[in-house]
Structures
1.
Amino acid sequence: MTVNKDDIISALKTVFDPEIPVNVWDMGLIYDVDIAADAVVIKMTFTSPTCPMMEELMEQVRCVVQNVAGTVPVRVDLVWDPPWDLSRMSDAARVELDLVNEGW
């Protein structure tokens, strides 16, 4: 089975922080999707290191990507560098959260 990055992104867009009505992809929490023959590695961050949903959201990300990857193992690595900031959000996320600003 060939793992397709577009399919992974579509799956990632189904994962939402329960406190924010925006998915993890559009929030800019996913820094990298590395697809190799022996594994899929997702580099992910959070807006704050004290996020109470961190473990649960990372597991949700792993599960939805695993559903796409089939038998290829999936790992989610938590990263803090570079730090997340509002510029990582998609335009759609900014509109959803009413963060539209002419400076963007």
2.
Amino acid sequence: MKISTKGRYALRMLIDLAFNQGDGYVSLKDIAERQGISKKYLEQIVPLLNKSGILRTNRGYQGGYRLARTAEKYTVGEILELTEGSLAPIACLDTEENICPRRGECITLSMWEGLHKVIKDYLFGITLQDIIDKSVTLEGGDYCI
């Protein structure tokens, strides 16, 4: 499994929002500058996050974005599934029910299911707040994504 730029940048954007949410709504320009990401690229990610209810938007002067929930309510798994689609390591595990015609005789299926479980347990066990807390501990008050 390889996480795309869209998934990584969405995660960085949301962590930045969580870290700077005390400032009210945060502009994409500010996020782009702090994160070294093109504002145009962030503009492509925002509709996906906005449509899913992850972001709140405020237009006009003092406008920008903020998280709809607190940072501890967002998991990395939720964000990556939203941006990447399935986190399954193989196609037959992309859906809730495995419809692969070989599932009955596939001797590697249990291994792939185990890997999928480990990936989901890990990514859904980490919140944005966990990342922020760890970053502050490592950096002594500053953060770097």
